[in-house]
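Students often ask why inverse folding is considered easier than folding. One informal answer: many sequences map to the same fold, so there is more than one right answer. In these notes we will look at a single instance of the problem. The structure comes first.
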């Protein structure tokens, strides 16, 4: 097959007629498919539902000498702190176990900056004239939504194959109004990139002008390999401490993609000084989080080895789904030269970069043929992709037969959008 850029107008027109025919046929099937969000599929949820059997009315609810059913232990069951410390490579005393969503902890961490200010900071951010925030993009839309809801001025930082472009970051943090940065260091959403050791070193050793600069380190995919073995990743708390930046970082994680999204356990990890500061603030907010659920997770997952064994079960379900997406792109799109994409081995997404100017049109064509994709532009601050190019494919939810149909619609829509654009230019 020829690259579209090498076809004559006549060839492009013939191709358009053929692809339009295919598209009309697919549309005529009246399908309703969804690849919009990174939700685990039903098989994954079924695979962990026996967790609900580990606690019954006659179970032993004592754990670490604590009755998990009662008030107390604001920062969580010690066994649960230990489990997450093992996963993140940090110490149990650095871990705070929260409720069922790390996103809520992230939102709350930032909300506290606005209402009360940061530890040793410049006071509440709500009193500041301006708060600027670094947003490596493509990135996670819900991070950007948090920033936007607080009225931050979001600054896009390009992603490279090694993580955020640190030359750009190091320049931007010289501005004292830049108060923080989002990072998804392992299997970044959506690129699936693992930050390199050099990127990590440069992040941990940053010298921002704002003394209360907040590094939001969202380690959402810390044990989420779907091809190959578990990839160890350094502890950001220790890395930052090495460069005198112990208080700069808050790390986040959850079991949303290990047990149940929305009904799992979430954590943040931070320095001793940060922990003391935020615990005082949290103490006014809640007596203690759901320790019954923490106990269920500890009894079910046991330890890091238990989590990694479970991760293998998820990988056995997710691996073929990612293979399906990557194979379809390789076969249908690669020879045409109209898009490029990452080939991740973990996380929940495949990040596709189409030729400039056709992501929105592709999304619309998918929609009209019954396939819902993540909104084009969603992976950029303010929902605005300057190139109109990045699309996030989320293969986890549909069963594989549906995924095959979804990819057929996606690839044909992408081709159609590319042909229309090339013929109109
Ligand atoms: N962070 C990232 C990078 C994510 O991709 C997601 C889910 N898609 C979350 C956080 C949400 O985590 P939680 O369910 O713990 O709020």
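Output (designed amino acids):
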């Amino acid at each position: 097959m020829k690259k579209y850029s090498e076809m004559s107008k006549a060839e492009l027109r013939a191709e358009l007629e053929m692809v339009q025919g295919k598209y009309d046929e697919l549309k005529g099937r009246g399908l309703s498919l969804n690849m919009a969000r990174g939700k685990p599929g039903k098989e994954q949820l079924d695979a962990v539902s026996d967790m609900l059997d580990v606690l019954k009315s006659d179970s032993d609810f004592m754990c670490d000498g604590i009755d998990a059913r009662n008030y107390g232990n604001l920062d969580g069951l010690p066994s649960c702190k230990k489990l997450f410390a093992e996963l993140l490579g940090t110490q149990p005393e650095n871990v705070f176990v929260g409720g069922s969503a790390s996103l809520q902890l992230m939102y709350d961490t930032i909300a506290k900056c606005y209402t009360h200010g940061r530890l040793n900071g410049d006071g509440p951010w709500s009193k500041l004239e301006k708060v600027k925030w670094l947003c490596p993009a493509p990135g996670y839309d819900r991070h950007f939504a948090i920033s936007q809801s607080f009225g931050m001025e979001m600054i896009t930082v390009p992603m490279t194959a090694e993580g955020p472009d640190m030359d750009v970051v190091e320049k931007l943090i010289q501005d004292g109004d830049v108060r923080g940065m989002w990072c998804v260091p392992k299997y970044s959403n959506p690129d699936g990139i693992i930050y390199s050791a050099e990127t990590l070193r440069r992040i941990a050793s940053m010298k921002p002008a704002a003394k209360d600069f907040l590094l939001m380190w969202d380690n959402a995919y810390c044990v989420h390999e779907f091809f190959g073995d578990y990839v160890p990743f350094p502890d950001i708390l220790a890395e930052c401490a090495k460069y005198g930046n112990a208080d700069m970082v808050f790390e986040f994680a959850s079991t949303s993609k290990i047990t149940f999204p929305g009904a799992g356990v979430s954590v943040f990890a931070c320095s001793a000084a940060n922990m003391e500061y935020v615990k005082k603030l949290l103490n006014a907010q809640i007596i203690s989080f759901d320790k019954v659920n923490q106990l269920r997770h500890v009894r079910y997952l046991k330890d890091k080895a238990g989590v990694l064994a479970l991760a293998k079960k998820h990988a056995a379900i997710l691996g073929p789904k990612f293979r399906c997406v990557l194979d379809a792109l390789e076969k249908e799109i690669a020879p045409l030269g109209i898009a490029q994409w990452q080939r991740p081995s973990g996380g929940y997404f495949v990040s596709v970069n189409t030729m400039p100017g056709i992501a929105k049109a592709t999304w619309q064509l998918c929609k009209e043929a019954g396939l819902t994709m993540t909104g084009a532009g969603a992976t950029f601050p303010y929902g605005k992709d300057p190139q109109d190019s990045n699309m996030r494919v989320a293969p986890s939810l549909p069963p594989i037969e549906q995924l095959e149909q979804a990819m057929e619609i996606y690839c044909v829509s992408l081709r159609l959008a590319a042909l229309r654009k090339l013929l109109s230019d």
